[in-house]
Design brief:
The chain is an alpha/beta fold and 603 residues long. It folds into two domains: 201 residues, no CATH class; 359 residues, Alkaline Phosphatase, subunit A (3-Layer(aba) Sandwich). Helices cover 48% and strands 10% of the residues. It is built from 24 helices and 13 strands.
Amino acid sequence: MKVVTLNEEHKKIKNRIMFVVIPILIFYLSQLLVRRHSLEMSWKMQLVNIVLFEFIAFALFFLLGTARRALYTESVIFWFCAVLNSYIYSFRNSYIMPWDVASAGTAMNVAGNYDYTPTTRMVVFTLLFCLLWAGIYFCDLKAGKKIGFRTAGFVISVILFLGLGLSLQKNSVVKLLGIYTIQFDSRGMIKENGMLANFFYEFKYLKMEKPEGYSKKEIQDKLAEAEKEQDTVSGTEYPDIVVIMDEAFSDPAVDGKFTTNEDYMPFVHSLQNGAENTITGYMNVSVIGGNTPNTEFEFLTGNTMGFLPKGSIPFQQFVQRKMESMPWELKELGYQTIAMHPYKSNGWNRPAAYPRLGFDTIYFQEHFEDLEVENIRKYISDESFFDEIIAQVDKLGKNGPVFSFNVTMQNHSGYDTKYDNFPLDITVDGTEGSEEISAVRVNTYLSLMKKTDEAFEKLINHYKESDRPVIVVFFGDHQPESQVLDEIWQQNGIYWENISGQDRYNSYKVPFVIWANFDISEDSGIDTSANYLGNKVLKEAGIPLPGYRKEIEGFEKNYPVISAIQATDSEGNTFEIDDKLDEKSVLEYRKMQYFIMFDDRRN
């Protein structure tokens, strides 16, 4: 019989206490590293997160055999997750969601474009983690050698962990715990729910629920009726449609007043002043600083991110089969369809999504390797890309009208580094000669806008002389990440951490241009959203709207703007997307979108 001394008993108690306390410290340290005000969360949500961290510790303990290994593993994982979340928020103003796992490949593609200088908070809390790691060394608790016991302990811990985590998706649990559910407020969700608990809560959005009162037959009948009423056009020579979604192209003037040494987009500004056969305005998008394919998705399909989970990526999650979209609609009229992007093909699942959206010809970076192209910084310039757009449209145009959809790369972040092949021609007044990072960022960005403006003018001048009818559609996918425009915002007393109301809405506006080398409507100052812009293009091209798009046109009359961020009603009232979208017309739009995306087996 083994005799246990008092000293040994004290060590056991000490080790057990450490094993219980350290996961709690891991939770608070990782949470505070991500959000400085995280301890404002309710005691219920703190307790939920603590229990989840305890279950992880026990599972690792039984799996790895010692408390020391378990706690080191758990603490390193959550230190890394906290640091990663901090960087992700600074890059795109949102945190990691479950569906971001599928975006890991794209993230790696552009990982070298950002500034990874650690913040003071990262350094301080990393040092605190180092102290924790030193303390973990003294936790000497062993799980024993009985495989059956350890296996049972591991399985039970995992079951309890998953059971608690997945229960956070249930409406009754959400209400009981007071889980913060405002999807557009990623910062608030992490603060109120905790990094780990919020991650579990977001799993509920991986699968879309049917809208209230949804009837598949009812939607089918409505669309069939709309198809019967579709306009017919005979003997029409359809124009080529060239769409350019320009990476991070925006006009910071919507964010606040500032002056520069010279106009950073003189050609676009001239078009906005009432140019012939031109429609201009601002398009409200659903993303900022990243998640580019969501703007593509909204434009091409007429669907809105406002009815989908905040932060989701339809190209990766939902475009799993043929889906109704502009390319399919145009192909029925004899159009050749082509999509191009002068960067890596493995970003955002485009090689799989584009064919399902109706593109026959698809070119990525590999296509441009044998061409003579200009690089600005380390990306193919917009001018070189636009030249190739012209060449491909001319080539395909021999067989009929062309729909050309193009996503640029020249203006992609980051904006912190100066390059020998790219002088900064534009400077914000007050930043001349400054080497401050905020000045470098904003001046780099605006200088890129000037390059794009020049390339766009060259493209338009080419098509002015073309014998073929053509419509050119040009818009940005989103504004740059918030830190790029800090200099401008701060000159206007705006700070991203406290941004709200119209200032926040403005940060999701990008300019759009619809130009034609034949007679079309002329208008300026239009306020719209990406899901509606495609309809405007088709109508100006003289193309009859199919049933779904005719229905969308009706919805637009009541809500001229619907994005993942905001909605604007016919009276000009703007509000957060989750606040008031309960009217019958919006519910019908939601039902139809659900049918098109998840229930339509006609295709």
